[in-house]
């Protein structure tokens, strides 16, 4: 950044909409870079974030927006949870004030190598695994984005040479120049359609924004078995070098499955690892491992380190997490399954008759693809949501026992009553959590607590 633009930014006003992790992180970075900062939240800011703002002497308000202050901004950072349709966002755009995401803002202030990971499912596991591989390989690396500590706050610390960022479509909607050196697209399935006018193609376009500013010197890693990804790539050109992964076909370049091994071929290097030794099992996890290992290979991590890291990785919290076995019934927390496709993976991996806890805020779900699995594996359904009618309509003819509950404690009590020896109780909601819980983590933790209290 030249001195001229630094001087301009000293006078620049940034307004941050949303006082959560991403908003407060952006506020800290913006203040450090000489902006006048104002944080405005339509809801209530959590006490821990209020304290950070007060300690950093950053102006804020909550439970409403002061439009006069907001419309005096040079630029606005919108937290990912606020939809583009929100009246304040629409007004800002109408008057020509730039609205960006935290990712866009923070990326301007770091020279670090960025690995950006998006996808409908698997992005948290892939991001966490990639972070482990790079950290174990001795790189100075941080994990952020849609997971853990905010990217902006970590940029403000000025101590990382590499970032692994889990990126949601909402974060990508707010980028203009952001360009990761390595982009990963794990897969596509309909999700968050309520934010995309119920048009799947809008959501797909949003995911592909991850590569829009990449150059020939960058890399795009993607699932070559995914029909929608292949379809998009056949109609659009990408500048980045393409590195596909597949469990169905052998590839000249990229990662694939051969003789029960993962094989990674990039330029003239080749890496092999037996699938049976990977710490997280299931076909979707083989793909997550392929994507992460491809990133690690590009960043010159030793093959032995990649193998050892894949063997030792135990997965992430709230993703098919085994909680407890009680009376020979296994309780599994898959609260992170906030869409149908994620729940498909979960049900597909069940080996015993399953009591399935499902429901929450439906984002335009089509449950029909679950019907064969539910028919084969599910003995009872426990609905956990305010409005369960769609679930009851979808599975009423397939499952004899469907019970409605409106709290986690009630759901677990019913599950305990319905499950017999050698059954599984699976929380895999296929929905967002906001009707009864703060977020999917809160839902998962309440599940674990209720199980431990049985």
UniProtKB/TrEMBL annotation:
Keywords: ATP-binding, Cell cycle, Cell division, Cell shape, Cell wall biogenesis/degradation, Cytoplasm, Ligase, Nucleotide-binding, Peptidoglycan synthesis. Residues 318-431 form the Mur ligase C-terminal domain. Pfam families: Mur_ligase_C, Mur_ligase_M, MurD_N. It is found in: Cytoplasm. The keyword GTP-binding does not apply. PANTHER family: UDP-N-ACETYLMURAMOYLALANINE--D-GLUTAMATE LIGASE (PTHR43692:SF1). Cell wall formation. Catalyzes the addition of glutamate to the nucleotide precursor UDP-N-acetylmuramoyl-L-alanine (UMA). This is UDP-N-acetylmuramoylalanine--D-glutamate ligase. It comes from Aequorivita echinoideorum.
């Amino acid at each position: 950044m030249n001195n001229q633009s630094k001087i301009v930014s000293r006078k620049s006003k940034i307004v941050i909409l949303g006082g959560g992790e991403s908003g407060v992180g952006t506020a800290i970075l913006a203040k450090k870079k000489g902006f006048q900062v104002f944080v405005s939240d339509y809801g209530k800011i959590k006490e821990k974030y209020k304290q950070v703002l007060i300690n950093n002497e950053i102006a804020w308000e909550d439970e409403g927006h002061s439009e006069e202050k907001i419309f005096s901004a040079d630029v606005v950072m919108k937290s990912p949870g606020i939809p583009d349709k929100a009246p304040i966002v629409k007004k800002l755009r109408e008057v020509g004030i730039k609205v960006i995401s935290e990712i866009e803002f923070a990326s301007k202030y770091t020279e670090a190598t960025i690995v950006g990971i998006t996808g409908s499912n698997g992005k948290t596991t892939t991001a966490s695994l990639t972070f482990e591989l790079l950290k174990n390989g001795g790189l100075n690396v941080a994990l952020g984005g849609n997971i853990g500590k905010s990217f902006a706050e970590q940029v403000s610390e000025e101590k990382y040479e590499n970032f692994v960022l889990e990126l949601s479509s909402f974060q990508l909607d707010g980028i203009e120049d952001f360009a990761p050196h390595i982009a990963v697209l794990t897969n596509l399935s309909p999700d968050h359609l309520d934010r995309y006018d119920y048009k799947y193609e809008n959501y797909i376009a949003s995911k592909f924004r991850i590569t829009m500013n990449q150059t020939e010197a960058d890399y795009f890693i993607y699932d070559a078995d995914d029909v929608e990804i292949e379809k998009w790539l056949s109609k659009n050109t990408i500048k980045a070098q393409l590195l596909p992964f597949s469990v169905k076909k052998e590839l000249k370049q990229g990662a694939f499955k051969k003789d029960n091994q993962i094989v990674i071929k990039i330029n003239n290097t080749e890496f092999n690892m037996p699938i049976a030794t990977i710490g997280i099992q299931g076909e979707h996890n083989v793909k997550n491992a392929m994507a992460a290992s491809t990133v690690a290979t590009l960043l010159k991590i030793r093959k032995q380190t990649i193998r050892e890291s894949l063997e030792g990785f135990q997965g992430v919290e709230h993703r098919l997490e085994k909680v407890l076995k009680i009376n020979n019934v296994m309780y599994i927390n898959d609260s992170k399954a906030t869409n149908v496709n994620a729940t498909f993976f979960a049900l597909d991996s069940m080996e015993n008759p399953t009591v399935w806890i499902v429901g929450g805020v439906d984002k335009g779900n089509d449950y029909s693809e679950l019907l064969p699995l539910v028919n084969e594996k599910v003995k009872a359904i426990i609905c956990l949501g305010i409005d369960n009618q769609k679930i009851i309509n979808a599975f009423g003819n397939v499952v004899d026992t469907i019970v409605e509950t409106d709290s986690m404690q009630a759901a677990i009590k019913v599950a305990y009553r319905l499950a017999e020896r050698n059954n599984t109780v699976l929380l895999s909601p296929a929905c967002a959590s906001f009707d009864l819980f703060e977020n999917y983590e809160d839902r998962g933790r309440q599940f674990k607590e209720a199980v431990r209290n049985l």
